[in-house]
Write a structure and sequence with these properties.
Blueprint (H helix, E strand, L loop, with lengths): L1 E10 L3 H16 L2 E10 L6 H6 L1 E4 L6 H15 L3 E5 L6 H8 L2 E5 L7 H9 L3 H15 L3 H17 L2 E4 L2 H11 L8 E3 L17 E5 L9 H11 L7 E5 L5 H10 L5 E5 L5 H6 L2 E4 L8 H8 L3 E5 L3 H7 L4 E4 L4 H12 L3 H16 L3 H17 L1
Parallel strand pairs: 1-2, 1-4, 2-3, 4-5, 5-6, 6-7, 8-9, 8-11, 9-10, 11-12, 12-13
Length: 387
């Protein structure tokens, strides 16, 4: 019996967490595997019998020093007899020591774009009064063009790569990007491209309403929903029979509602947070993302699987891969006028053209069915343990 553990900050809400559940379900059905989740915060209200049947959950300390948290994880690994540890996002402090003492194989699962750390570094430098003052008085010139942040992100990625047995990214273009940027030998690099899974929808609704949809967190440093509201201010007078629906919430929700009022938007609805957004995808004609950065956005892939047409800024090769092949529309990064024009273009297309693009997206997503992606993870686990 092979035993695999995934480390999450919180569980089970979130895209990466959904992928873990899909992998666990598949391995449970295949047999011969046990999946554990080590999480600092567990939302019991979101746990279902199906989730608890296919994996075991262990709570790890959150408000403690990193060294104590690592020690707690190691104790659990020894107690559970873990063969493979999957760290979501970044390495545990002291992971090299854990590998030596336990003989466990370790994996980094990068569910964002490569070198995602640079965006976090830039954001944290400007967060809070004291950090903003330090930014302007000390670090402004060093960080303002992002060069130093990228250097730090490369160093962290190289460290994570060197300390672990495998490093996974979300598509082949990301793998090539990491190999080239870090100067690795492509033939020997232990970097694996494994896409995020998307569940196949048997009864796709193609009878769409005139709805432009956003589903996600209201966090302006990353999702930049403020851009979408400004774009909608350009679009709303041109397509008067369409409306914008925003599903989600977050720290910037109040600010975004105020911005919608300032822009005098009339056909925008804030729907709040919903556990199940299937009904929104079934109705929406267009799903939009105006993010600063994205890895492999589930909002786009979930929308495609439900027959929505995706429109997004082409900030990463992941987005371009999702929407490529005549499956949606990629707008040059941060071109709000171009984004507005694209929405109007889609809204003005005839039904035959819309149906062709919708069906292209649905067919593309079927290639990322959970069992297809989970089999790639199974192959990776089997390969690591057999070494």
């Amino acid at each position: 019996m092979m035993k695999i553990a995934f480390i999450h900050n919180r569980f089970p809400a979130g895209g990466a967490e959904r992928i873990t559940i899909d992998i666990a379900r598949y391995l449970h059905d295949v047999g011969g595997y046990e999946v554990y989740v080590y999480a600092a915060r567990v939302d019991q209200s979101l746990l279902t019998c199906e989730i608890e049947e296919c994996l075991k959950i262990r709570v790890i300390p959150s408000q403690v020093l990193p060294s104590r948290r690592t020690a707690a994880v190691e104790r659990l690994m020894v107690s559970d007899g873990i063969d493979v540890l999957v760290q979501v996002g970044k390495s545990l402090p002291g992971i090299d020591g854990i590998r030596q003492r336990t003989g466990c194989k370790t994996v980094i699962a990068c569910h964002g774009e490569p070198f995602w750390q640079r965006h976090v570094i830039m954001h944290r430098r400007q967060k809070g009064f004291i950090r903003r003052m330090m930014w302007h008085l000390w670090n402004r010139r060093r960080f303002q063009d992002g060069t130093l942040a990228m250097k730090m992100a490369k160093e962290r990625t190289m460290r994570d790569y060197a300390l672990n047995d495998a490093y996974t990214v979300l598509c082949e273009s990301y793998r090539n990007e990491v190999i080239e940027t870090l100067g690795l030998d492509a033939a020997d690099a232990h970097i694996y491209a494994i896409e995020n899974a998307e569940r196949v929808i048997e009864d796709v609704c193609y009878a769409k309403e005139n709805v432009v949809l956003f589903c996600g967190r209201f966090e302006n440093w990353s999702k930049r929903v403020d851009r979408l509201l400004r774009i909608w201010a350009k679009v709303e007078p041109i397509i008067p029979d369409w409306r914008l629906v925003l599903v989600g919430d977050g720290r910037d929700g109040k600010m975004l509602r105020s911005l919608a009022s300032e822009l005098k938007l009339e056909r925008v609805s804030f729907e709040g947070m919903h556990r199940d957004v299937t009904g929104y995808y079934r109705k929406a004609s267009i799903v939009c993302l105006t993010s600063e950065t994205e890895g492999w956005p589930l909002a786009l892939t979930e929308g495609q699987a439900q027959g929505c047409i995706g429109v997004a800024f082409g900030v990463t090769s992941g987005i371009r891969e999702i929407l490529g092949g005549d499956c949606g529309f990629v707008v040059p990064p941060y071109d709000e006028a171009g984004f507005a024009a694209t929405i109007v273009k889609v809204a003005s297309m005839d039904e035959d053209e819309l149906m062709r693009i919708r069906m292209n997206g649905v067919r593309k997503r079927s290639g990322y069915a959970p069992e297809v992606i989970a089999e790639k993870w199974k192959t990776l686990f089997d390969t690591l343990v057999s070494r």
